[in-house]
Amino acid sequence: MSLSQNTPPAPSSLRRWRDKALILGLLALVGLGLAGLASATGWEETWAQLTRLHLWQIIALLGLSLANYGMRGLRWHILARRLGLPTHLAQDFRHYLGGFAMSVTPGRVGELVRMRWLKRETGWAVERTAPLVLMDRAGDLAVMGLILALAISLAAGGIAGALPVTVLALAAAVVATRPKLLAALVTLAYRALGRLPRIFARARQAARSLARFSHGPTLTLALTLGFAGWMAEGYAFHLLLGFMGADIGLWKAVAIFVFSTLAGGLTGAPGGLGGAEAAMVALLSLDGVPLEVSVPATAVIRLTTLWFAIAIGLAVFPLAERASLHAPQGGGQ
Predict the structure, then answer these.
(1) How far is it, in rounded angstroms, from Cα 275 to Cα 268?
(2) Cα gap 302→276, rounded to integer Å
(3) pTM, two decimal places
(4) How far apart are CA 238 and CA 243, in angstroms?
(5) What does the domain layout of the chain look like in residue ranges?
(6) What are 97-124's pLDDT values in tens digits?
(7) What residue spans of the chain are helical by DSSP H?
């Protein structure tokens, strides 16, 4: 027997296989859950709802998702320029969209991939580009919290349990955008653990770098773009329910979409898989939408938002990887 046969797999290989198994397991559970609900309500009714959708309606839903990605990609570019990164618009969009390929990986590896591309192309260390990722995620949390609060106040009946999710989203956004507060929390975490001093030192440096974004016009524009982007997808959900004959009102549809997306994220599952779908079906059912409508509506909106983003990411990823490998380090291309 050769030595290679006795050599155990590398930890990185084991980790990749474990991550793939986790994603496949989550996908299987989501698929089984939706299939079980469809079976319980009757496949004929569920299929009939799906066949009611026309090609132009699917294109409209995808177009609204593209609007969301476009506005959030522009926000990424604006924040990158504010941070001082020597990148141009097409380059930033390539990084942002390419990262979508990793949307359902544990730990949101897509963010790390974007920082790796930036390091190759600009020479900036990860701790220097980390504030860009933090601000981007905080911007999403902030605008989703604001949209949810607005939708609850305007929707008839509101949503039970939405207030804690809104508060958590806004609190996380506040912490992530306050350099001194975030640096203090990093220091407390280091004192509690008493190890990994180099990592915590880099984390404190990244937290202090957030001060670059404490600029009124930049924050206003970033929040406006994020708000418009997420509202586009919420409106897409409203349109979809109308296409399926279950119009529950714009603000109730937006509230259910945003709440489910945030709730899915709070479960810790990659891409909110499982949690977002369960919340969406449950909330629609509580609002009187029959399962033969809520199940296919949930499946379609997730396909035209999350999975459409992943498809775009998979298309852009090899382009971004190739460009980063051939870029002269230390400058944008």
Answers:
(1) 9
(2) 9
(3) 0.77
(4) 9
(5) 38-325
(6) 998 887 776 656 667 889 989 999 999 9
(7) 3-6, 11-41, 43-51, 55-83, 89-98, 109-122, 126-154, 162-176, 179-193, 197-209, 216-243, 250-266, 275-286, 291-302, 308-326
